Amino acid sequence: MSENEVKEERSERSEQGESSGEMEGKPQRKQNKYKKKVCRFTADPELAKQINYKNIELLERFITNRGKIIPRRITGTSARYQRVLAREIRKARSIGLLPYKVN
């Protein structure tokens, strides 16, 4: 093919909406299926101050109906606040405000 034929072919592609960059090069990134989880305590420092073994309503959101502590990969809580939550849940359990296990 001569240079003129190559130029004509490129111009035809551009008229049709095809660009040479789309056909060659890096593929597009995949979109994530899931929304990134955000730590609710990092986002709201006032809520972080409410983490206490006496605040049963808050702590119950982070335990299952069987009494297990929900892991941070599910709740989206940061590592720092997950440690604080686990400590306060253990305190509440030892006093008897939360169950160790539900039958």
Automatic annotation (TrEMBL):
One of its GO terms (biological process) is translation. GO terms for cellular component: cytosolic small ribosomal subunit. Residues 1-16 have a biased composition (Basic and acidic residues). It holds the Pfam family Ribosomal_S18. Residues 1-36 are annotated as: Disordered. Keywords: Ribonucleoprotein, Ribosomal protein, RNA-binding, rRNA-binding. GO terms for molecular function: small ribosomal subunit rRNA binding; structural constituent of ribosome. Belongs to the bacterial ribosomal protein bS18 family. Binds as a heterodimer with protein bS6 to the central domain of the 16S rRNA, where it helps stabilize the platform of the 30S subunit. Part of the 30S ribosomal subunit. Forms a tight heterodimer with protein bS6. This is Small ribosomal subunit protein bS18. It comes from Leptospira adleri.
